[in-house]
Amino acid sequence: MSFSNWLNFGSGNLELFLVAVFSFIGLMALLYSISRVKGSARQLTEYYIFLLLLIGAGVALVFARELLLIFVLWELATISLWRLVSYFRDQEAVDAGLWALYINFAAAAVMLVGLVMIQLGLGSWSLNELRGQELPLFPALLVLTGIVAKSAALPLYIWLPRAYRSAPASVCALLSGLAENLGLVLFLKLFVQTVKVPEQFYLISAVLAVGSALIAGGVALTTRTIRDTLAYSTVSQLGFILLALSVRGYYGIASGLLYILAHAVAKSGLFFAAGTVEDASGTGELEQLGGWARVSPALAGATGILTLSIMGLPPTLGFFAKLGVVLAAVRSNLLYGIGALVAALFTMLYLSRFYARIFLGGGSSRPVKISPMAVGLVIVMAVVSIAAGIFWFVPVKFFEGGW
Amino acid sequence: MLAHPFILMVLVPAVAGLLGYLIGRLRNEFSFIGTVASLYYAIRLFLLSRSGEPIELTILAIGNITAGLRLDQLSGFILLFISIFTTLILFYSFRYMRGRESTRGFYLYSLLILGFANGVVLAADLVTLFFFWGGLLLLLYAILLIGRGETFRTARKALLLVGLSDFAMLLGIVILIVRTFVPGGWIDLAPRVPLPLYDPAMIAGFVLIAAGALAKAGAMPLHTWIPTAAETAPVPVLALIPAALDKLLGIYLLIRLTVYMFDIASNMVLRNVLMAIGAGTILFAVMMALVQKRMMKLLAFHAVSQVGYMVLGIGTGIPVGIAGGLFHMLNNAVYKTGLFLAGGSVEHWAKTDELEKLGGLARQMPLSFVSFLVCALAIAGVPPLNGFFSKWMVYQGVLAVGTEGNRLFPVFLVAAMFGSVLTLASFLKLLHALFLGQRPAQLERVREVPLTMWLPPFSLALACVVFGVFAYQLSLRGLIIPGLKFHELSLSGVWSPIPASLLLLAALGVGAVLYLLSVAVKPQAGRTFVGGEQIGYSEESRVPGTAFYSSVKHMPIIGELLIFGERGAFDLYNWLVGIFRVIGYVFREGVDRALKALVEFIGRLIYYFGLGLSRIHTGNLPLYLSWVFLGAVIFYLLLFLR
């Protein structure tokens, strides 16, 4: 067992694409934090340290070529998440942070066993050396446990809604746009790019993916707060990406990557908008909100575009990403395709309800102070969603063949 | 590429709408420019398309899938009418919408809808088509938020029902791309030859996409948002979407599917299904229309009912039936838009569309009355107006299906004809309730609407006459037959519109002369006595139109069905919402809560395990020693027992 060159990084176009997405989301979350996150100097120091640590760990994980290194960065991300989720330090927030930590830690321990089994069985930690080798089902499933916890898929997503309920909006944005995608990145790097795994493995991951898309989508139909809706929506959307990566093929991988971009941009933008609305009106209860289109038409328009992107309606990037996922799913198994479409219908329903409850209808139209910075960030996200929707083929041409 | 007329068709209305939205003072001007520019390009493209050679524009080619725009005879024809209807309706709404709330959004959305509808018709393949189609779904949601009352619910209902069909359509498109034997997918909207429908994947794709087309057109069972919209949306929205554009687009796609991409004639089961949907839609919706108490809702049910004829005609799979369906689509758009606009003029003055409160407006609003009358006769299928001709073609198609050995054809034929009778009946009710009968006191000061409001319905009424009288020369030869790739239609039976119209005109003239000459038929006003006292005109003695046909509700089975229908028991939306609620509840309580409880349970187990261990650690040395001793005994026992 040699550890001498375990600090091994490497990159292709695909990795560059992912890093571009993650750094963009990280930058936006930082900008939002500067304008919106308040606290004492000590709290803020800790906050920014862990925020940057999380972004750094994410970027490094994309480039890492050694399983051990990936594991270390993985845990670094978990620890930063724990501190960031419980930023507000009330009982709720502390509990939420602990749930995130415990579940991710336990799953990562299982994953470590899987990684060690890979090293013992195939003789290497290195992704470069593992390429093309055959991996038995059992260690692959152990690794999948960690991925399922980090990427919040069924049945280990349960920490996520709790974390979203109490974390600052910027952290939620970073969670959706970066941290939860790390599981998918590992899936892509290990099970799509590198090793050969028995077909049953992909069957299991696809079923889990469709299950979380459907079940979280169904739960989101009944949620009562902004945060809960967005939390279950994230679980559901990550299910789409995991499904795309599980069915693989050109359509699957390309649309999975596009979906990561579409979802990261749109969902973090939605969290910025949600944070702005919550801060200004002092509540996150959907029943009590309303009439925000009159309060801030710019915010309403930009948020509308972001919801469209997540619903998968043209002319946003979400449309092409979702179309690609459904194409890939139907090509592999008609049932996956139908499940994905039903989940997409759920998405449309709960997001239209979400949007209508906040922005439309009556409600108090008393003048409130809205941070122009936050609105500006939401608009940037909306512009990116539309621009990427028109030029969706540019990223595809850039990363295609990188697997 | 941006200056290509295809792109301009999509971009110009959208840009004009956005400019009008931003610069509020010039909103009407921008909207006018946008629609007229679209009309100009539509006319140019229509003339171009007459050559018969399709014109293509490729936007993007990735792998073996190309996305692009194309103009052929069918799309040229549909494009032209989309622009004509939108222009007329916007012309009407300049006055109608003045001073109402959300006019800003109305013009933006209508112009965007125009641009996207142009895009749908110009799309060369299903993916491009779906891109614009999905955009229309969203604009439908946005435009339905305009109006009075609970527009929010209407918009959500439309979003769910139309969205459901759109997702079905997406699945169909995806199946046609990846699960058929054609490399690259069978998604070209006008391939050289249509495929027969034998392959299961092809049939699945066809059925799913046809569901999207039917829902768009407003056929059962996904139609129920239309009557709901009639309660909240302003008249121009109703005229623009359910009456005109949705019919044009839905039937356009259905024609593309049944004639261009696939050969519907090859599959008798699918033909029967389509015809059954058509016949069912005709009958059920017209019955619902009969008992309505509000004008817009009544018209909305007719907007649904008439789709039945188009679907029935296309479902026959016989050239004459398909041509009849397409022709009926055009005719229906003409007279239904006319009806909505003329009815809207009444509503504009009376401030209500409840039939109870209307009546006797023929003298005050003669032009609106004439437009409404002609359109009403056309929808009822009175010769020689256009509605008669296209229905007659549909009947011929159904009869021809009978000669192919289909035993169900009498059912369809009877349903269609009976529906036609009921249509006439319900329009007699509407004519009485709006224009004839006695005038309620509060409507004394109603006048004719200004030019911009009576001209659009009047010109549409004129079109009803022209399309009917010159049906062969103008409509069929000029528009329908080239659009369908059929070279000639075999029309059996004898109906020559021009001589017949001349005869009818002569008969009407003779009747008029007799009426004017005769003194005997002049109505005599008598005095009314009740209990020996003479009563003058009063509200109590007025007969409003709502009383018509209310006895239908007392008929044994039909009556009860109608009462259920009014309460929404057949409304698929209510069922869907209920199902989704149950699903959400089950997932939340059954999965989400259970998982959370499981995690908490494991946490508790670990906690108690730790608690137990801490109980043992008391700090008492003899206790620790006894543990060590016990452990050693067990260890040695195990060692020796092996």
The total of helices of chain B stands at: 21
Widest beta sheet: strand line-up of chain B: 1-2
Q: Pairing-aware structural class of the strands and helices of chain B?
A: mainly alpha
SSE pattern of chain A: HHHHHHHHHHHHHHHHHH
- Provide the β-strand percentage band of chain A: under 5%
User: Largest sheet of chain B at a glance?
Assistant: 2 strands, antiparallel
Shape of chain A: globular
Number of strands of chain B: 6
Tally the helices of chain A: what do you get? 18
Greatest interface: A-B, 42 and 42 residues
* Cα-to-Cα separation, first versus last residue of chain A: 28 Å
Number of domain modules of chain A:
1
User: What is the helix fraction of residues of chain B, given as a range?
Assistant: over 70%
Average pLDDT for all residues of chain B: 85
Strand content of chain B: under 5%
Radius of gyration of chain B: 31 Å
State the end-to-end distance of chain B.
Answer: 87 Å
Number of strands of chain A: 0
Largest sheet of chain A: none
Strand and helix layout:
The complex is a heterodimer of chains A (403) and B (642).
Chain A: H1 13-36, H2 41-63, H3 67-85, H4 91-122, H5 127-130, H6 137-150, H7 159-166, H8 169-179, H9 181-194, H10 199-220, H11 226-247, H12 249-281, H13 292-295, H14 297-311, H15 317-332, H16 334-359, H17 372-390, H18 393-399
Helix pairs in contact in A: 1-2, 1-8, 1-12, 2-3, 2-8, 3-4, 3-8, 4-6, 4-7, 6-9, 7-11, 8-12, 9-11, 10-11, 10-16, 11-12, 11-15, 11-16, 12-14, 12-15, 12-17, 14-16, 14-17, 15-16, 15-17
Chain B: H1 5-22, H2 27-49, E1 55-62, E2 65-71, H3 73-96, H4 103-122, H5 126-144, H6 151-178, E3 195-196, H7 200-217, H8 225-232, H9 235-261, E4 262-263, H10 268-290, H11 295-316, H12 319-350, H13 366-379, H14 386-403, H15 409-434, H16 451-469, H17 471-484, H18 497-517, E5 528-530, E6 533-535, H19 556-567, H20 572-616, H21 621-641
Parallel strand pairs in B: 3-4
Antiparallel strand pairs in B: 1-2, 5-6
